[in-house]
Amino acid sequence: SQQGEEDPQALSIQEGENATMNCSYKTSINNLQWYRQNSGRGLVHLILIRSNEREKHSGRLRVTLDTSKKSSSLLITASRAADTASYFCATDKDFGNEKLTFGTGTRLTIIP
Amino acid sequence: IAGITQAPTSQILAAGRRMTLRCTQDMRHNAMYWYRQDLGLGLRLIHYSNTAGTTGKGEVPDGYSVSRANTDDFPLTLASAVPSQTSVYFCASSEGSGAYVLTFGAGSRLTVL
Q1: Nearest CB to B42: which of A98, A99, A104?
Q2: Helix, strand, or coil here: A105?
Q3: Interchain contact, B45 vs A100, CB within 8 Å
Q4: Is B95 strand, coil or helix?
Q5: Contact at 8 Å (CB) between B101 and A35?
Q6: CA–CA separation, B12 and B105 (whole Å)
Q7: What is the pLDDT of residue B98?
Q8: Is B100 left (phi over 0), alpha (psi -120 to 50) or beta?
Q9: Dihedral, CA atoms, A7, A9, A14, A17, nearest 10 degrees?
Q10: Do the chains contact at B101 and A45, CB–CB below 8 Å?
Q11: A112 exposed, middle or buried (CB, 10 Å; 0-12, 13-18, 19+)?
């Protein structure tokens, strides 16, 4: 079963606009991560946010975490065509550190 | 360039055949993982290894086996392939079992007919 579920499943926006993706999870976590996957490629780590953090920034990326709602959001500002990819959230589980569980992903398309 | 090398990139094989997907990393990471990616299901963990000489089962281990004879190599074997094992397989690694940031390989696309 999936620990994280992304919403929406697919998102299309115009270049230059902001893109927001959401992730909900079921159990308590130590940290939550976001990964990007370009078509036909492996996943690439974007950002990690710990359970005691509420917001984190990395370049044009902004991640928020609300542990009371068991949810996180990824905001990409000033989107570019190169941001077209699938985005996945991943969580550990509070009882073990062997498993990083991924959601089903959001497919983001940036329209030039 | 440091990273993970997976082979083969793509393979078609008949049901019932044995297949080994190879994974090699040159980052001296302690932990390694195998995930399968299926449309609509995201990535699911098959097996993992926290350090050389140890392995563990993930969410979907049935039909697969792994070994970790050394730090760099983590092969995944399908003893008798079935069509439901048609998928894209990703190998990943992390510095330690407590360090969760994963580095992924480019994937191996497997089709079982």
Answers
A1: A104
A2: coil
A3: yes
A4: coil
A5: no
A6: 19
A7: 62
A8: alpha
A9: 20
A10: yes
A11: exposed
Q: What average pLDDT does this structure show over A72-94? A: 92
A34: nearest CA partner in chain B? B101
| Mean pLDDT value across residues A17-24 | 96
Closest by CA to A4, choosing from A59, A97, A60, A70, is A70
Contacts of B48 (CB under 8 A, 6+ apart): A98, A99, B31, B32, B33, B34, B55, B56, B58
User: C-alpha distances in angstroms, B44 versus A1, A11, A99?
Assistant: 9, 23, 10
Rounded (5°) CA angle A80-A86-A87: 90
| Closest CA relative to residue B45, chosen from B63, B61, B65, B69 | B61
Q: Which tens digit of pLDDT belongs to each residue from B6-48? A: 999 999 999 999 999 999 999 999 999 999 999 888 899 999 9
